[in-house]
Specification:
By secondary structure, this protein is α/β, with parallel strands linked by helices. It has a domain of 213 residues: Rossmann fold. The protein is built from ten helices and twelve strands. A six-stranded parallel sheet has the order 2-1-3-4-5-10, sandwiched between helices. Strands 6-9 form a two-stranded parallel ribbon. The longest helix is centred in the N-terminal third of the chain and has 22 residues. The radius of gyration is 19 Å and the shape is globular.
């Protein structure tokens, strides 16, 4: 097991939703605050090779947890396919190559379940990752991340770089992104229902048909899983991280409607894409390899997220 209290840990994207939780859990586990380093985009554009070289020189990490990504919901993926491919590919490419050059002890790449084929059998098993083409609306993003898995496997084989690749399912929780232009489905629905209730509106529009299913993973559980993998896992095979359940978007919308106290009607816009038909992970490898399983129940996690949003008075 790697003793992280003795390491200098760079967390790219560490100021964000998931990164903040990882920082907090590392500190709580005994990692000194001065050994947790977060390169801010204002200082280091990680799509630039020169900036990545400078970041490694300035921060001198022994471990890199690469969370940083350019990502969004279906709308954002449709609007930015080229940017999402380039930015995610470039960041990982430069960070992994520099990790090899400096002799980094451990590189942790956070992937995406958008890398799975569109019609992957449920539950998704890591062995099915290459069994088809991803869902079209997020394929550029998913393929860029999946290419980094291949890079890490190749660098492990040729250079002995200790790099692991984790595939967390859709995250949610307090502090999520609630911007309707870029958010994922749970924060978008929470914002829509809370706003509609406050304004006394009678309807809320929801994208798609509601038939697609998703698995949702509480952000604090995900942070714990990433830290466990960083400490205990050292293999080239990818590992799913999730809660091991699925819910249709229709049932999700009805659940959030109830929890937010909105008593109007849902209007489904079937002209909008549903995205991948189903998403639910087989999480047995994480359990077997480093003893991880999710702890926060879905209803509990949703209520915490709704309460947090309502307390922000963002509307």
């Amino acid at each position: 097991m790697m003793d992280l209290s003795r390491e200098r840990i760079v967390i790219t994207g560490g100021a964000g939703f998931l990164g903040g939780r990882i920082q907090a859990q590392l500190r709580a586990s005994g990692v000194p605050g001065e050994n947790i380093l977060v390169p801010l985009i204002e200082d280091y554009d990680l799509t630039s090779e020169a900036a990545v070289i400078r970041m490694y020189a300035d921060m001198a990490p022994s471990v890199v947890i690469h969370l940083a990504a350019e990502v969004g919901g279906i709308g954002a993926n449709l609007d930015n396919p080229g940017r999402f491919f380039y930015a995610n590919m470039a960041m990982g490419l430069h960070l992994i190559e520099r990790a090899r050059i400096v002799g980094l002890k451990k590189f942790v790449q956070i992937g995406t379940i958008c890398a799975y084929p569109k019609f992957t059998p449920v539950p998704f098993k890591e062995a099915d990752l290459w069994a088809g083409y991803p869902e079209e609306t997020n394929a550029p993003y998913g393929i860029a991340k999946k290419a980094l898995l291949v890079m890490l496997q190749a660098y492990r084989a040729q250079y002995g770089l200790s790099g692991i690749f984790l595939l967390p399912v859709n995250l949610y929780g307090p502090g999520d992104n609630f911007d309707l232009q870029t958010s994922h489905v749970i924060p978008a629905l929470i914002r829509k229902f809370v706003q509609a209730r406050r304004r006394g509106e009678e309807t809320v529009e929801v994208w798609g048909t509601g038939s697609a299913s998703r698995e949702f993973f509480y952000v604090d559980d995900c942070a714990r899983g990433i830290i466990l993998a960083t400490q205990q896992y050292d293999d080239g095979e990818p590992v799913n991280l999730g809660a091991g359940f699925e819910i249709t978007i229709k049932d999700l919308a009805e659940k959030i409607k109830q929890l937010t106290g909105f008593d109007g009607e849902l209007v489904w816009d079937a002209t909008r894409p549903d995205g991948q038909p189903r998403r639910c992970l087989d999480t047995s490898r994480a359990k077997e390899r480093f003893g991880f399983s999710a702890e926060v129940g879905f209803d509990e996690g949703l209520q915490r997220t709704i309460d947090w949003y309502c307390n922000q008075e963002q509307d």
